[in-house]
Amino acid sequence: MTSPPRRLDLDAVLDTRRIVVCCGSGGVGKTTTAAALALRAAERGRRVVVVTIDPARRLAQSMGLTELDNTPRRVGEAGAEGGELHAMMLDMKRTFDEIVVAHADPARAEQILTNEFYVSLSSSLAGTQEYMAMEKLGQLHASGDWDLIVVDTPPTRSALDFLDAPQRLTGFLDGRFVKLLLAPAKAGGRAYLKVMNVGFAAFAGVLSRVAGAGLLSDLREFFTAFESLFGGFRERAQTTYDLLKDADTAFVVVAAPDPAALREASYFIERLSAEDMPLAGVVINRVHRSAAPHLTAERSIAAAEVLDERGGHTTAAGVLRLHADRVALSSRERAVITAFTSGQPAVPVAEIEAMASDVHDLAGLRRVGEELATRPAA
Amino acid sequence: MSFFPGVRLHVVSGKGGTGKTTVAAALAVALSRSGRKVLLVEVEARQGLAPLFGHPPLPYEETRLARTHGGGEVYGLSVDPELALIEYLEMFYKLGRAGRLLRRMGAIDFVTTVAPGLRDVLLTGKVKESVIRRAGNRPVYDAVVLDAPPTGRIVRFLGATDEVGHLAKVGPIAKQSEAVMALLRSPQTAIHLVTLLEEMPVQETVDGVADLRAAGLPFGAVVINKIREPQLGKADLSRARRGRLDLDSITSALSAVGLDTDPGAIKVLADEAREHAERVALQLTERLELEALDVPLLELPQLTGSVDLGTLHQLADVLVPE
User: Fold this and answer.
1) Chain A from 169 to 188: CB within 8 A of any B CB
2) In chain B, is it the N or the C terminus that has fewer CB atoms within a 10 Å radius of its CB?
3) Which helix H or strand E contains A120, and what residues bound it?
4) Which of residues 4-63 of A touch B (CB under 8 A)?
5) In this structure, is the dihedral angle defined by the CA atoms of residues B30, B31, B33 and B39, taken in order, positive or negative?
6) A311 vs B: CB within 8 A
7) 3-state DSSP call for residue B100?
8) pTM of the predicted model, to two decimals?
9) Are strands B297-301 and B219-227 parallel, antiparallel or unpaired?
10) For the CA atoms of B221, B225, B229, B231, what is the dihedral angle to 10 degrees?
11) Is B217 an interface residue toward A (CB < 8 Å)?
12) pLDDT at A193 over 50
């Protein structure tokens, strides 16, 4: 026998932490979970903002989010005992633009914002979404306006890219590639002569052959204008990284009770632990249960078959077959969850029961939050 | 073979959790029967394909995953953007040493992780190469099936090449971009979206179809996955939903076959029936939304247990009946 998994005490997390990051693979209900946790914290008296990325339309509407405008908006009737819930949808491009405007002089900012390379970079750069989510988190935290910030992460396999994104970006910006690109702009200086020695001509030749000279000059202009911002980027990336490691932060990994989603959850747990990030636990969403598990699938099906033979009992037979399906599904899920928790015995777990329809109003979110915080472990 | 005749590149996308990888694999199996050679490609380094065929993780190399009847073969490839870039540079520019120089300078990192959409350009470029590759006077693969990024990213993924082509304007990258877009927009390509009959996946599918149409990309079919037949007749569903099932007759039927008939147990059964009926009603609404799209709808049943080659064949039978 394996011992039962530790129960994830979410109320303790919501009452004491300053930042909660929800991560997990796509399609597991991460956004709904983030919203439900934020609402619950607000109703326990905290001033909360939830940052979501691309929420389902009706869920967004239920929180009064009608546009991507990067500004936290108060969710009307939510909150109690002085608590408030605010929500915002992350607009990557706008966040990027704001950084440029805030950290460059007006002429330079204008030059950057109109550069074609920047326009493309700021909306489609690999990892931008992750990076900007963290940038926004840093800003919200620095504002001091919030007791708790709940962040939803992008639904990609590499949802943990945000851990790497700051370092990757700064590592790259410090790299020789950018230095080389910038070198001609400082032509005449010693730096230029020096890189010439390590084969810049060959390098530039290759690049313009592959990319076309136009792209190269756009790139060069962009990095020249951007150079003044590099220091700030590095510094803030480091600050945010430290913030994530802080004991006031909690990571919640969201999963569904199927082997693929739980495999991804294990991957997330290992990554977080390798980075020394504070994991609060795992939320397993959409778990099926039956309130009458003692009536087994086998007995239900056998009884339905007998009723079919006797004839005249289609309703009762149908209801029994439904029950059999439900019990069978529930025990398959239980087996998968048990395998997962045996592999991760130290990780606290909470479950949310599957519902007949999607959650798209505050009452639904409230129910989810309540279930998360209070349902006894199975 | 009547599955989208003339199409050689099948792009399979769908919201996370809908089973798009399984559907892509089943489609590859279906297309490979009757002696065809099919390449199944993944681009997100998830290694999701290999386990479905009971195969160890795929290298960046076309590897046979299965032989199917009639002499068919399914090959698998997990595209790694960095290796794809080096391969690309070597193929087009014979960059032995210069390629290594680029790598040392961090340019490869730049292209594969930082630059706008270049990563997606490399991935789609590799897919295009495998579609057009020929041995003698015929294509190496009769069909290529791409397990693509999820619906929310698909247009950007497929259109990345256009974006970069626009930035590059002239030169080899621009030319390559045009060739990739020409294939993706041609009748040789079909983009399929996998969904469940649930609200969020259907909403994403509806949005995805509109986005693909707006981008001028050729749509294939919507695949409705994991369909479960209702266990109750129409009249019972309607009664169950309104909480009007005849509990007395259920109780007497159960007691006649010797089952527990305490009111608590009967109520649980009625509640479960009500939830089921609600879900069936919701599925009907979602199906109407999909029908309104006016695109081919394919349906796959819910299978229990884990997926293996046998299950893929079962699904393949439904997708492309032999």
Assistant:
1) 169, 172, 175-177, 180
2) C
3) helix A116-124
4) 25-28, 54, 56-58
5) negative
6) no
7) helix
8) 0.84
9) parallel
10) -150
11) no
12) no
Residues A368-376: what's their mean pLDDT?
Answer: 83
Q: Is A196 an 8 Å CB contact of chain B?
A: no
Nearest-by-CA chain A residue for B265: A292
- Between CA B67 and CA B49 the distance in angstroms is 15
- Residues with Cβ within 8 Å of residue B55, at least 6 apart in sequence: B63, B65, B76
Q: Which structure tokens are listed for B54?
A: 């009971």
Q: How far is CA A264 from CA A307, B148, B301, in A?
A: 44, 18, 25
In 10 A of CB A371, how many CB atoms? 15
Say if CB A131 and CB A137 are below 8 A apart: no
Mapped onto helix, strand or coil, the DSSP state of residue A374 is: helix
Are the beta carbons of A348 and A6 closer than 8 angstroms?
yes
Measured distance CA(A114)–CA(A7) in Å, rounded: 52
Q: At what angle do helices A259-274 and A314-343 cross, to 10 degrees?
A: 20
Cβ atoms within 10 Å of A280's Cβ, excluding its own: 22
* Residue A300 CA neighbour count, 13 Å, CB half: 23
CA A290, CA B82: separation in Å to the nearest integer? Answer: 49
- Assess A97–B contact: CB distance below 8 Å, yes or no: no
d(CA B17, CA B244): 34
ipTM score of complex: 0.80
Burial A155-175 (b: 16+ CB within 10 A, else e): bbbbbbbbbbbbebbbbbbeb
Query: Which residue matches tokens 């929500």?
Result: A87
- Asked if the C-beta of B291 comes within 8 angstroms of chain A's C-beta atoms, the answer is no
Highest mean pLDDT among A76-80, A121-125, A262-266, A295-299: A295-299
Q: What is the pairing mode between strands A349-353 and B134-135?
A: unpaired
In this model, does residue A76 exceed pLDDT 90? no
Judge whether residue A50 has pLDDT over 80.
Answer: yes
Least CB-CB distance to B253: which of A27, A316, A322? A316
The token pair that represents B122 in the structure block: 């490399």
Whole-angstrom distance between the N-terminal and C-terminal Cα of chain A? Answer: 15
pLDDT one-digit tens code per residue, B263-288: 888 999 999 999 999 999 999 999 99
What does B252-309 look like in DSSP terms, one character per residue? HHHHHTT----HHHHHHHHHHHHHHHHHHHHHHHHHHHHHTT-S-EEEEE---S---H
- Assess contact for A73 and A65: CB atoms under 8 A: yes
Looking at residue A128, its pLDDT comes to 64
Q: Which residues contact A363 (CB under 8 A, 6 or more apart)?
A: none
- Interface mutation target, options A31, A267, A305, A319, chain B, most CBs of B under 10 Å: A319
B-chain CB neighbours of A169 within 8 Å are 114
| Nearest-neighbour CA in chain A from B6: distance (Å) | 32
> Per residue, what are the HEC states of B241-268?
HCCCCCHHHHHHHHHHCCCCCCHHHHHH
pLDDT above 80: residue A116: no
The vertex-A149 CA angle with A148 and A151, nearest 5°, equals 150
Between the two ends of chain B, the Cα-to-Cα distance in Å is 8
How many CA atoms within 13 Å lie on the side-chain side of A242?
Answer: 6
Indicate yes or no: CB of A291 within 8 angstroms of CB of B116.
Answer: no
Query: Which pLDDT score is estimated for A57?
Result: 67
The answer to whether A141 and A243 are in contact (CB under 8 A) is yes
